[in-house]
From TrEMBL:
<keyword id="KW-0547">Nucleotide-binding</keyword>
<protein>
    <submittedName>
        <fullName>Uncharacterized protein</fullName>
    </submittedName>
</protein>
<dbReference type="Pfam" id="PF00071">
    <property type="entry name" value="Ras"/>
</dbReference>
<dbReference type="InterPro" id="IPR027417">
    <property type="entry name" value="P-loop_NTPase"/>
</dbReference>
<dbReference type="InterPro" id="IPR005225">
    <property type="entry name" value="Small_GTP-bd"/>
</dbReference>
<dbReference type="GO" id="GO:0003924">
    <property type="term" value="F:GTPase activity"/>
</dbReference>
<dbReference type="GO" id="GO:0005525">
    <property type="term" value="F:GTP binding"/>
</dbReference>
<dbReference type="InterPro" id="IPR001806">
    <property type="entry name" value="Small_GTPase"/>
</dbReference>
Length: 173
């Protein structure tokens, strides 16, 4: 018999780094070059860990709110996992720095057991890369975070990064 456990996951990061796109790739296997204003703020997706265990992600996207005001801590309180996204085609001073500040914020305010995955998105634009992979890798290692680079556009590593998170989530015996 298979058991499904639900976990709350939040997406964080600067505007336009591809948070909604990563979610849409993961949940619907879709991508759009054009920003949709109607992107849902809440989606779910279930993955299978093994024949007896499934993980249901309840995914909270900021739906652009991060552009207008700072997000209330209530948004990530009670979150079991966070995906913090930056854009590898931007210089590190911009979205990578913002990602680091989100990590600090979670370390201060979120549940200490939260699983944090740092993601450098847009690897399909390798020729325009301005943030080296090593910067993300090193920061994640120092802070004990999961790390991946990915592309919502090509789909590279998207499913895998959510699977990595799923494997780290605490399951009741
Ligand atoms: P959000 O504001 O962080 O949710 O970012 P969006 O998901 O709305 O994406 C912002 C823009 O970047 C859109 O035009 C997307 O099509 C584009 N985008 C997102 N992910 C990728 C990616 O992996 N590769 C490329 N080339 N473009 C992407």
């Amino acid at each position: 018999m298979s058991r499904t456990t639900s976990f709350k996951l939040v997406l964080l990061g600067e505007s336009a780094v591809g948070k909604s796109s990563l979610v849409l790739r993961f949940v619907r296997n879709e991508f759009s070059d054009f920003r949709e204003s109607t992107i849902a703020a809440f989606l779910t997706q279930t993955v299978t860990l093994d024949e007896s265990t499934s993980i249901k992600f309840e995914i909270w996207d900021t739906a652009g709110q991060e552009r207008y005001k700072s997000l209330a801590p209530i948004y990530f309180r009670n979150s079991n996992a966070a995906v913090i996204v930056y854009d590898i085609t931007q210089p590190p001073e911009t979205s990578f720095e913002k990602a680091k500040s989100w990590v600090r914020e979670l370390q201060r305010q979120a549940d200490p057991s939260i699983v944090i995955m740092l993601v450098g998105n847009k690897t399909d634009l390798e020729s325009q890369r301005k943030t080296p992979r090593e910067l993300g890798e090193r920061f994640a290692e120092e802070e004990g975070l999961l790390f991946s680079e990915a592309s919502a556009k090509s789909g590279e590593s998207v499913e895998e990064l959510f699977m990595e998170i799923a494997k780290k989530l605490p399951l009741a015996p």
